[in-house]
Design a protein that fits this description.
The radius of gyration is 20 Å and the shape is globular. It has a five-stranded mixed sheet with strand order 4-5-6-7-8. The termini are close together. It has two domains: 2-71 and 333-347; 82-321, Metal-dependent hydrolases (TIM Barrel). The protein has twelve helices and nine strands. The protein has 352 residues and is an alpha/beta fold. It has helices at 2-15, 18-24, 29-48, 53-71, 100-112, 129-141, 172-185, 200-214, 262-272, 302-310, 318-321, 327-347; strands at residues 82-88, 117-120, 150-153, 155-158, 165-169, 219-223, 252-255, 276-279, 293-295. The longest helix is centred in the C-terminal third of the chain and has 21 residues, at 327-347. Helix content is 45%, strand content 11%. α3 (29-48) runs antiparallel to α4 (53-71) and α7 (172-185) packs across α8 (200-214).
């Protein structure tokens, strides 16, 4: 157990140095060095109070994030439309409870990156999905979400085929109706929040029923379509996974974590006549707005977003289209967040 703790501490120190230099730039090396000293002092001070190494690292990571947000450079908005990160999260892992601080930091980072909003597509099979919805709306009422910044609670839904994911852009009411739908149709099937994964066609049939019940349209994006463990489409042949028909979705999402497959995703979107969107798929506040999709200038509501996707009136950022986008920088941010997530997973594997 002691060796596991030491390895995790080393991973944490690496996270505080080399990976942050890639995100913030070498010109910030002195600031990063000073921050590392402060954070490690905080970590050892917490350990001295008797707190576990795992909890001390989590507290130190949260303190580091606040420093990092302050150091992040601002990015000037280049696109004329409304820039929205269509695939993002506030929780680093499904098990981590919603934290209003993470939401607040996410908004600050997104605004620094010059975007106008994001969709919070928490995993619908997260244990506290419904509670997260309530807390997000509570944060809105308290003013944590600025009135001129767009935040909508949506969902990421796992389906059986390919173990793939669909982004559901819908109202909380529609999402909760979908969660209960399959169990109500067949008592042997649980709620999605309890781990029931619908089949692809079953999902879209249910969605049609719920749209009819609520009188409002929804939109869907296929995401991670080439990911080996969650494949919805073969990378080489562009053939859909058996049981999947990607012509039924409203677009393809390609996140900053999957930049090497962006061109292939664009080819698939062209093949099925649907738009390709881009996003951060950020679970860490530092990732928000790392990549985004451009919507019409008049976009203000969730239904505006749905309508734009249905009418294919969205586009990739201008910097991506003209090849001036900082792909290396975006990949560095994604790598930083991946290390952060690995640290959280690692500290769950030991106790003091």
């Amino acid at each position: 157990m002691v060796s596991e703790r030491i390895d995790t501490e080393r991973m944490f120190q690496h996270y505080l140095t080399s990976e942050l230099e890639e995100v913030l730039g070498s010109e910030q090396s002195q600031c990063i060095s000073d921050m590392k000293i402060q954070i490690m002092e905080r970590y050892h001070r917490l350990r001295g109070t008797g707190i576990s190494a795992a909890d001390a690292i989590i507290h130190a990571i949260e303190a580091a994030e606040t420093h990092i947000v302050d150091l992040l450079p601002e990015r000037k908005k280049e696109d004329k439309g409304v820039a929205i990160d269509v695939h993002s999260h506030t929780k680093l892992t499904r098990q981590k409870p919603f934290n209003e601080r993470d939401l607040s930091l996410s908004i600050i980072v997104a605004q620094k990156r010059g975007i106008d909003g994001f969709l919070l597509t928490e995993h619908l099979d997260s244990p506290d999905y419904e509670l997260s919805l309530q807390r997000i709306e509570s944060a809105r009422r308290k003013g944590t979400i600025p009135e001129d910044f767009l935040v909508f609670s949506c969902a990421e839904v796992r389906i059986q085929e390919g173990n793939g994911d669909i982004l559901l852009i819908a109202t909380p009411e529609q999402i909760l109706l979908l969660n209960r739908y399959f169990h109500e149709q067949n008592a042997d099937r649980g709620l999605i929040t309890q781990g029931y994964y619908p089949r692809f066609l079953e999902f879209f049939e249910a969605l049609g029923t719920i749209e009819g019940q609520t009188g409002s349209r929804t939109a869907t994006l296929a995401t991670h379509i080439f990911r080996k463990q969650q494949m919805l489409c073969d990378y080489k042949t562009l053939k859909d996974t058996q049981g999947v028909d990607l012509r039924m979705v409203d677009g393809i999402d390609s996140s900053a974590k999957e930049l090497p497959t962006l061109e292939r995703a664009k080819e698939k979107a062209l093949q099925i006549g649907k738009p390709v969107c881009s996003s951060s798929d950020g679970h860490s506040p530092i990732e928000k707005g790392n990549l985004y999709t451009v919507f019409p200038e008049e976009t203000r509501t969730l239904q505006d977003i749905v309508n734009a996707l249905k009418s294919k009136n969205v586009s990739l950022p201008q910097s991506v289209l003209n090849n001036s986008f900082d792909f290396n920088g975006a990949m560095a941010v994604a790598g930083y967040a991946r290390t952060q997530k690995n640290i959280i997973k690692a500290i769950g594997n030991y106790t003091d």
